[in-house]
Amino acid sequence: xxxxxxxxxxxxxxSGGEIVRTRDLGxxxxxxxxxxxxxxxxxxxxxxLRQLSLAALPDGTVLLRRLSEAPLLLDGQPAExxxxxxDRPRVLGLGRFRLTIERxxxxxxxxxxxxxxxxxxxxxxxxxxxxVRGRRAAxxxxxxxxxxxxxxxxxAGFLARPLPPAAETEAALAAEPHYRxxxxxxxxxxxxxGLSDAHAPLVSDCKACHQAAFESVTDAACRRCHISAHDHxxxxxxxxxxxxxxxxLAAARAAAGLPPGRCTACHTEHEGPVLRSNxxxxxxxxxxxxxxxxxxxxxxxxxxxxxxxxxxxRPLVVxxxxxxxxxxxxxxxxxxxxxxxxxxxxxxxxLSRTNAVARMAGRLPGYxxxxxxxxxxRPESGGGFRPIEMERDCGACHSLAIAVADGRxxxxxxxxxxxxxxxxxxxxPAAHPRPAVAGAARRVPGSPPPSAGLAPSAAARAAAxxHDGGLCRDCHGVSGExxxxxxxxxxxxxxxxxxxxxxxxxxxxxxEDMRCASCHAAEMSVDAGDLLLPAIAICRDCHGxxxxxxxxxxxxxxxxxxxxHWFHPDRRAPGFAELEKSVRGAQGRRS
Amino acid sequence: xxxxxxxxxxxxxxxxxxxxxxxxxxxxxxHLWAWVxxxxxxxxxxxxxxxxxxxxxxxxxxxxxxxxxAGALLILWLAALGIRKRRFTDGPWSLKAWVSAHVWxxxxxxxxxxxxxxxxxxxxxxxxxYALMMLVVLSGIWxxxxxxxxxxxxxxxxxxxSERAMAAELADSDxxxxxxxxxxxxxxxxxxxxxxxxxxxxxxxxERLAGRVAGCGTARALDALPPGDPALAPLRALLxxxxxxxxRVRRNAQLKSWLQVWxxxxxPMSVALLVALAAHIVSVFFYW
Lengths: 591, 288
What we know:
The structure holds two protein chains of two kinds. In chain A, the strands form six sheets. Chain A has a seven-stranded mixed β-sheet, with no helix packed on it. Chain A has a five-stranded mixed β-sheet with strand order 4-3-5-6-9, with no helix packed on it. Chain A has a two-stranded antiparallel ribbon with strand order 13-14. The radius of gyration of chain A is 55 Å and the shape is rod-shaped. Chain A is an alpha+beta fold. Chain A is 22% helix and 15% strand. Chains A and B meet through helix 1 and helix 2 of A and helix 6, helix 7, helix 8 and helix 11 of B.
């Protein structure tokens, strides 16, 4: 006998839990569908009006017959008509309902059908306005990616890289640079600004300068390459000379590892192609405004500002001679010092455009006109002048040619009075020395000596140049013989100063657009002792003068200290050897 | 006397009470924070104008450090709104006051950070932090504009009906359609089922922002059902009512999505900014 069907209809209670209604459907077959007259009415539009029928067979299986083409799922698989063995519960999917077919364990005479749904009530308010999601995921993703790329990778790269190797000399450095050219490194993203051209190759090797984390670039790091960089002064004196910053600032700097006097206090990198040092005069004035207060034994005068507070220039002038050695002293131009260089000379006479000197120069080959400054003061490369040499710079007019012997012109040896005497004594009597008469016409080189009247004695001939109106006396002071006839004349010592200033080098080449006379009043000078150096006021006419700058656009006349002075002196700097000695001495004392 | 509200209590004591007028977060306390932000910006600009650092202004000068520190602290405080907004309070430090300050000081941050940069920009983490900050501020301005405009449109669209009521109406429509379609042929039932099953609002954010739903079941059912069939007339009426309801529901979802979508930029960019800011500060002192 076939089994009976029993239907259990399960519905969810709003407060949770379920309600089960049980109904006996008889022996079947039972119909299942959307229509209300089906034995099992499934209230779901996805189910056909008549979807299927179930019949219990005597062998204990159930015969499933599909009544519609609507899709049907059995245990999750598409189902077709056929026998269903009930060795286990079978589940039919009907829209959002489940129909479970099973044979209870205690009774073989019944087939239980259980109709249930777990679909919640749809269209809640939340579904109508779904929140915009993704903020959290995007935040995590972006944050993590940035953390890795901008923070973790550069730090890891820095820690993994060894310090660059050190070089012993600059030559070794040039052969094998400290820095390592490299491909892109993660810390490149940290570059705050372009490196200067000089340091450009270091751009992929931050560690070349930034050698330790959270430590400002040290002088030691700079000196790995700048092996021969020169100190401004003995470092201990340099520190003593610095004005102490306010205590709080000093403490903050000390705590931050920023000692005073470090390289980076002046040289700021990552500021574009030109590495400039801080030109603020405050940098120099910080020490030099009141240097004597902290360094009482300094030889330097205080200078706070080029235009308002700079001492008058103090050139090195010849005060006199001790034996043959000049006594050089520094004297302010305000004291109108004289440079007793030992010469007899008139700039005015030589620069005249109308006098005999001018006419003579006009006739001379190689001159052809009145003398100019450069005819004697010959510029050399580097902005200075070649030292005056008598033969080259004076000799064209002040000829020392004295005679023609054996077809050769005999020159008196300049600067050697004894040999002058010997040369004249040795001349044959036939030769005619220059008449030692004041006002005699000066010869053009190569012209024959004029004939003299009576031939004087040999000794008188030898002494003639040294006497008043003689050749030597044109330019020099001469001291007489120790006894008449001994012919031991002596020429007054001469010292022509090459560098008047000990702390500054004047670049004449950078002033070549100017006339010499705008600074040097040589045309008015009749005495060799006149010091023709311009005073500070002349320099200030242009340098640091805003009105001058306004009138001369494009021209440059800086008022910065470094326009005339060095901070790191090199070999060109006056007083360099002296400074190097003192710094070396200080380093020797320290080590 | 039982008077639970402060105003009523004050009135009961005979004090004059200010009438309660809604004041937006921008105008909070007569634009107090706008003035604070303006003062902060002007002060910073003045300091910058009279500072003459060597070789040029940047974040590493004394003023640069001052602006940088102030800017970083300001960013941390602005970001703290994300925590603060989850606690709704009133009073002088109400959430409204906080939001007002957040908006105005956030604008002042642009001035502060730009002066901190000294107008130097490059392809590096420092400018990245600046760019992210600008993105955050711009998205914030966008958010303020949206918050000034959309809530009115939102309430106009709702016409006094709450979202819950709209949802209930839609559920009613589901049930009515379900009941109406149950005795009808399977082909019609399938169309109605699809209409009920298809989502009321777009599944993707883009759809919701556009206020459209691709393949709306209700529209399809209306297209597919023959208009002249008297047997289907009640069903058509139900579907048309549903269609009208869906327009309102979708407009509602669209406006609400716009009210939130700017935060999809603002919040992740803020987090990215915090990380970039940390990288900026660490890198500067790491390679001092």
